[in-house]
Amino acid sequence: MTVKASTESVTQRVERQLRSDILTLALPPGSRLSEQDIGERYGSSRQPGREALIALSKSRLVEILPQRGAVIAKISIAKLMQAAFVREAIETAVIRSACSSFHFHARTRLEDCLKAQERAVESSDRAEFRRYDDLFHRTLADGAGLMMAWTVVEDLKAHIDRACCLSLGKGDALRKLLAEHKAIVAALDARDSHAAEAAMKSHLSELLQDLPTLEAAHPDIFE
């Protein structure tokens, strides 16, 4: 969930905006950045840009080059595969737990997410769909009382999100993902943990199935 601007420092804002631009491919892999570039792009001095680069280098999203600024890292297939492996382990455990105990307020929020995603599908708004995709998975963890699990996933999926941006541009990808979300919720409502886990695994495997095609179509941004 986005932190309100009024509670953010300039450094936090710059880091958030830079991270978002990297994850959505507004700044594609291989792009070079300097502290001055960042300051001009996000309306800050050089110091917040420097601190944002250091923070994002820890997530392996940028590589800092001594005396030469930084470059946005290519999408690492190895890191993506590892992140996907850990994410599946966590999110299947979350949905299994959710089938045993799930807060009714969170169930209402899930329905709101599905409706918002339906609107995003109809308007072909990929950015809005992704925003509610994150909120959907976050709400599953929240309703199950496992928010720490989402915190781990949120950090991991930085290696997944950029490939997701490419995948969402394919045909009826949004509509298919929405159907998968609905299948997860249907299994949750039925308290069918086996069906819920299967639905979650199927949902999370979509990107991995698309990877060879994405890599072949965009060889310059993968490694």
How does this structure look, described?
- The structure is a single chain.
- The chain is mainly alpha-helical.
- It folds into two domains: 5-72, Orthogonal Bundle (Arc Repressor Mutant, subunit A), CATH 1.10.10.10; 77-217, Four Helix Bundle (Hemerythrin (Met), subunit A) (Up-down Bundle), CATH 1.20.120.530.
- The protein has ten helices and three strands; from the N terminus they run αβααββααααααα.
- A three-stranded antiparallel beta sheet has the order 1-3-2.
- Helix 6 (126-143) runs antiparallel to helix 7 (147-156).
- Residues 8-75 form the HTH gntR-type domain.
- InterPro entries: GntR_C, TF_FadR/GntR_C, Tscrpt_reg_HTH_GntR, WH-like_DNA-bd_sf, WH_DNA-bd_sf.
Could you give the topology of this structure?
Layout: H1 10-23, E1 32-33, H2 35-42, H3 46-58, E2 62-65, E3 69-72, H4 77-100, H5 104-123, H6 126-143, H7 147-156, H8 158-167, H9 173-189, H10 193-217
Antiparallel strand pairs: 1-3, 2-3
Helix pairs in contact: 1-3, 2-3, 4-6, 4-7, 4-10, 5-6, 5-9, 6-7, 8-10, 9-10
* Element string (H = helix, E = strand): HEHHEEHHHHHHH
Can you tell me the residue ranges where pLDDT is under 50 for at least 5 consecutive residues? none
| CATH fold title of the largest domain | Four Helix Bundle (Hemerythrin (Met), subunit A)
Number of separate domains = 2
Q: How much beta, percentage-wise?
A: under 5%
Keywords: DNA-binding, Transcription, Transcription regulation
GO molecular function, one term: DNA-binding transcription factor activity
Protein name: DNA-binding GntR family transcriptional regulator
Domain HTH gntR-type: 8-75
